[in-house]
Write a structure and sequence with these properties.
The chain has 287 residues and is mostly helical. The chain has one domain: MetI-like fold. The protein has helices spanning 13-30, 32-35, 73-109, 111-125, 129-140, 144-171, 174-181, 186-222, 234-241, 250-277, 279-286.
């Protein structure tokens, strides 16, 4: 396939960079048992706080060293990608579905329906997202499913508020008015005429939300309100590494880099999709 024959969004440098980064993270998550050099939960109290293999005193069996309990840092990073991506994918799709449905209902019907949904969004946004997530986790308890539910209940407002404005703009276009005059049902008008026009923005918001979900999960696991100690999590690694930050700074740097790279990949992908899928931005860049 030639470059010209490829879809326009695949010719974007931002999209390609984001996809390559996320492909690397997804590969680590899917093939963790084959890529991890050790069991991430296996403790070796004789080999605690070992430096990376290339440093003085390092052990080739532990390429990125060990933590205060003698667990392999690289293995924990690889297995931690599983939790991060699971939460990012499921929670983001859940928030997208709720937010997108309410946004299209509010923007299309307007009137008291729009007012009611708008007030619910305003009330929900009056709480800081991270604080609201922590409050929900206190009530729900720890566990992957509760982390996902907390993120969905908090972040659906991101989709609803942004998409609602776009739906209002699209609803006022001539072809939507023509569809109504032709007798299209509300369902058909929204799904056939409005939803395709808002799809580029929806995909962009979804990719950006995945990055947000990774950060929120890391914060929750950092404070011990995400998953149990037997499940590797990047935020939990950061929390454990604080105790030995001066003796083993690599234990803190590695999970922070993993979070940064993953979030960067989602954000670059979202920005690239926004620039290539939104016809208004495409025309601006060409001009």
């Amino acid at each position: 396939m030639t470059l010209a024959a490829m879809p326009r969004w695949l010719r974007s440098g931002r999209v390609l960079i984001g996809l390559l980064i996320l492909l690397f993270v997804v590969t680590c998550a899917l093939f963790a048992p084959y890529l991890a050099p050790n069991d991430p939960n296996e403790q070796n109290l004789i080999a605690t706080l070992l430096p990376p293999a290339w440093a003085d005193g390092g052990d080739p069996a532990f390429p990125l060293g060990t933590d205060s309990l003698g667990r392999c840092v690289l293995s924990q990073l690889i297995y931690g990608a599983r939790l991060a991506l699971t939460v990012a994918l499921i929670a983001s799709f859940g928030a997208m579905i709720i937010g997108a449905v309410l946004a299209h209902v509010a923007g299309y019907f307007g009137g008291w329906v729009d007012w009611l949904i708008g007030r619910i969004v305003d009330i929900w946004l009056s709480f800081p997202p991270v604080i609201l997530s922590l409050i929900l986790m206190v009530g729900l308890g720890t566990g992957v499913q509760n982390v996902i539910l907390a993120i969905v209940l908090v972040d659906w407002t991101r989709f609803c508020r942004v998409l609602r404005s776009e739906v209002i703009v699209v609803t006022r276009r001539d072809y939507v008015a023509a569809a109504r005059l032709l007798g299209f049902s509300h369902w058909r008008t929204v799904t056939r005429e409005i939803a395709p026009a808002t799809f580029p923005l929806l995909i962009t918001l979804l990719s950006l939300e995945m990055g947000v979900a990774v950060v929120v999960e890391a914060i929750l696991s950092f404070v011990g309100m995400s998953v149990g100690a037997d499940i590797p999590a990047w935020g939990q690694m950061v929390a454990d590494a604080r105790q030995n930050i001066y003796q083993a700074p690599w234990n803190l740097i590695c999970p922070i880099l993993a979070i940064f790279i993953t979030v960067f990949g989602f954000n670059v992908l979202g920005d690239g999709l926004r620039r290539t899928l939104d016809p208004r931005l495409s025309q601006t860049e060409r001009g």
